[in-house]
Amino acid sequence: VKVKIPFGNKYLDAVFSIPEKKSTYGVILTHGAGGDMNFPHLVSLAAYLAAHGVLCLRFTCKGLNIAHRAKAFKTVVEYLKLSEDYKLSGVFLAGRSMGSRAAASVIRQLSQEEDDFIQGLVCLSYPLHRPKLQTKLRDEDLLFIRCPVLFVSGSADEMCEKQLLEGVASKMKVPKKIHWIDKANHGMAVKGRTTDDVMEEINAQVLSWLRENIELECK
Which residues belong to the signal peptide in this entry (predicted)? Predict the structure, then answer.
């Protein structure tokens, strides 16, 4: 279902992937610095989650300004929270590359509010540093997050050195999990594996982590 979400004096284009049965929890998903919500990895994940009973809302917000991207993400969270059509108990924020930075930024901003609508964060190819610039880490938002976090990254990602992400994760004071896609680069391409094969691994990891965290919430 296509929707337009009011954002300032403009609209954000978004698409709901809706499961057959009513979903209690949802995932909001956005793209990286290039592309839009129709990036194949996002389309694949959204379809997979909906097929397994999780509502997914993906949206497009262009621009390389992280504050602008975070503001758009926050608008989408509010939109879904107030939605009469999909009365959700909670959402997980998910993004690819720059989209995951925007998601982390929103969660940090909203963690000041006493509100448990946001259940967790999924970071696909989190861009921890610029290529070859490992000295300046983009970890400030991650260290302040108060909900569970899943990282899915390629072990050969030029923007997320393995040891550096593991170091940041060890400082985080929340339940976190890192799933490494062996030999994958920042775009999740792996020599000798098809995109569908890699996406199957990513999608299954995200779903099982969501289920674990939803179960914890329901106990």
Answer: none
